[in-house]
Design brief:
Length: 497
């Protein structure tokens, strides 16, 4: 898949001299992506494994089995850690670079895994979950930015989405382990402890990987930046890429030190970019993906299937579909573009949520119970089929590419924090909402939110497929200051749905 075959690619790519790259054509970039993506694997594994591990933790610690507060704390503390980790991680990325951010996440992560595996009581376990969450939070902002900054424009979406494949792959793996380890005493220590292994592997390989070329350039380390870029581009294109980079950053870095959180709100362009990025992250969560990922066994049981085994098996199938759908997203994101992919995904999500909702309403009315149970399961499968290629990868990809260099870490981190806070809210409220207003009504609410998300994407998210970082900056200037700015034609060209 070379960029020449892509419809509607921008002027930038048309004018780039030298070789255009395809997904598999540069082992260095792909290798860097996979190593950085181990952060995604940790993210997926650790958010997925806890539901299964909790069953055994309850066996070992009586206090946990007697207290739902302790159970909830064990589950949610990782999310709390991720909220803090994402916010701090954004700043670490800008101040110390992507490489040090990754290494520090690995250290915290490994310590957290050891603490969990060795925990003598539930409170130490909760502290371990907090540490692991911190690592996951830092990784959730660092991996996409590090990958995007090393990516050739024409395959940037696919490479950043590969990190999302590692997330969904990690979730699948954790469900598999949850099923495989049934009823072995002490297993939870292994289940939680093994997640330190990818962190150690990542730490080791990261030592040999370079810092992001864009961050180096920004920090006046031009020679290192050029040496990294020369591993990616042929000589003809290398020269062009360096010229582009220096022209763009020369202007931007004048007097720029590290950006603070509040600086984000001072300029109109950055506010607009942040609105688009953070909005996508919030809608990713509020359209309910993690009600499905965390509670699919429960939802399957609510739909009338009482067997634990069947419920676990169906949720494993859902996780497999989610990972397979992400592969489809990797292929589509640089072909059809971010906007079209998100809009199509949301349309399917709306229909699927309505199917689930209607089946729960009809099922509770009493007739044809098992028929409507299967109908709900069909809705769940459709939901994943539509969500996974679009609303899964698009928010992470867009957030890795819409901010100017100096803001990329801080804004990406704040947006990831929005994602984790929204995740926590949805995870904490789904069951009680279903109890209060009914499962059918809960899924109707999610469908309503998905409709708002559709309008939001139409209105606020520009197309960034095939655009260089510099071109994306021009789009925000144009949006903020109206026509006449040099982003005008790009905006027009890229805003078709
Ligand atoms: C989301 C996670 C979610 C996963 C599901 C990711 O893009 O950020 O919260 O669990 O997709 O596959």
């Amino acid at each position: 898949m070379t960029i020449e075959s892509l419809p509607g690619s921008s002027g930038y790519l048309d004018s780039v001299p030298g070789q255009k790259l395809s997904y598999f054509s540069n082992p260095f970039v792909l290798g860097l992506t996979v190593i950085a993506g181990l952060g995604g694997l940790l993210f997926g594994y650790d958010t997925g494994v806890i539901s299964g591990a909790l069953l055994y933790i309850k066996d070992d610690f009586e206090a946990v089995s007697e207290s739902s507060l302790l159970q909830e704390s064990i589950v949610s503390m990782a999310l709390v850690g991720a909220i803090i980790g994402a916010a701090a991680g954004g700043w670490i990325n800008d101040a110390y670079g992507r490489k040090k951010a990754t290494l520090s996440a690995d250290v915290v992560f490994t310590i957290g895994s050891v603490v969990m595996a060795a925990a003598p009581d539930p409170y130490v376990l909760i502290a371990g979950r907090l540490l692991v969450g911190l690592g996951v939070g830092v990784a959730s902002v660092t991996a996409p930015v590090y990958i995007a900054e090393a990516s050739p424009t024409e395959i940037r979406g696919a490479l950043v989405s590969t990190n999302v494949l590692m997330i969904t792959g990690g979730q699948f793996l954790s469900y598999l382990i949850n099923l495989a380890f049934t009823e072995l005493p002490g297993t939870w220590r292994w289940m939680l402890g093994v997640s330190g292994v990818p962190a150690v592997i990542q730490f080791f390989f990261m030592l040999f990987l370079p810092e992001s070329p864009r961050w180096c350039y920004m920090k006046h380390n031009k020679s290192e930046a050029i040496s990294v870029l020369s591993k990616i581009y042929d000589p003809l294109r290398l020269e062009y890429e360096i010229d582009q980079l220096s022209a763009a950053l020369e202007e931007e870095r004048q007097g720029t030190n590290v950006i603070g959180y509040l600086d984000v709100f001072k300029s109109k362009e950055i506010r607009l970019a942040f609105l688009a990025g953070a909005g996508l992250q919030a809608f990713q969560q509020f359209t309910g993906i993690n009600t499905v990922m965390y509670y699919s066994p429960t939802i399957v049981q609510m739909a009338g299937f009482s067997s634990n085994q069947l419920a676990l098996l169906l949720s494993l199938i859902i996780a497999a579909m989610n990972a397979a759908g992400t592969v489809v997203g990797i292929y589509l994101i640089d072909h059809v573009g971010r906007r079209k992919l998100a809009l199509t995904s949301l349309s399917g999500v709306i229909v699927s949520l309505l199917i689930i909702s209607v089946s729960f309403f009809l099922q509770s009315s009493g007739s044809l119970q098992s028929f409507y149970g299967w109908f709900a399961v069909l809705g769940l499968a459709l939901y994943i089929a539509f969500f996974s290629p679009g609303m899964g990868p698009v928010p992470w990809t867009v957030n890795s590419e819409i901010y100017p260099e100096a803001y990329r870490g801080v804004c990406g981190g704040m947006s990831a924090t929005v994602n984790w806070v929204s995740n926590l809210i949805v995870a904490q409220s789904f069951l009680s909402l279903a109890e209060a207003v009914g499962t059918g009504a809960t899924f109707s609410i999610l469908a309503g939110i998905a409709v708002i998300a559709f309008v939001f994407v139409m209105e606020f998210v520009p197309e960034t497929k095939g655009l260089s970082f510099e071109e994306v900056e021009k789009i925000w200037k144009e949006k903020a200051w109206g026509s006449g700015h040099d982003g005008e034609s790009l905006l027009r060209q890229n805003s078709e749905p």
